[in-house]
Amino acid sequence: MSFDLAAHLGMMRREVRDLERDGQKAKAVIAARLYDTDAADLWDALTRPERIRRWFAPVSGELVLGGRYQVENNAGGTITECETNRKIALTWEFGGAVSWVNVTLTPQAGGTLLELEHIAHVSPHWDQFGPGAVGVGWDLGFMGLSRHLAEPEADVPAEAVEGWTATQEYKDFVRSSSDDWGRADIAAGEDRDAALAAAEATRSFYTGESIPADH
Question: pTM for this one?
């Protein structure tokens, strides 16, 4: 089974919600997709290091409840919930900031629904980039997982292949993802101009056309 990027993008669902976390204003960025496999297989792809590195990135640490994990060249944190074949919750600690990720698996007709919720406090970084700041990165993860399930012989994620981020496919993917997160932001009540500006800032950052002011 070959991977169809356009079909994958058409199956993604994105949502943004306002909430509070620890008494502070926060946003939830939610991405979901139905995968044509059972919950046990999807759980294995999400939790077994040998498979994680094939679609996401190398991960080290103790991938058990209460364990600490580290994504290579990215975030680390603590696993706060772990229900086999059903749910993983963890802290996402990066650049001195802490946010929270919840992943749930729900069997449905046609496969298993994977829903990822990333909760972060509202900050100047959010104001500049909006939900795409984390959403585009997770979209790359969803794409990598889809490709892994379709082409299990692939040894590394597409974005880890030298030169892929310079291709038109990557640039089109980032534009589509950024635009979709902008639309989700507008649907959640954000000012249209602000949401579109944040989406463009995200697209420009992921394609290497700009560097955030705090970098």
Answer: 0.93
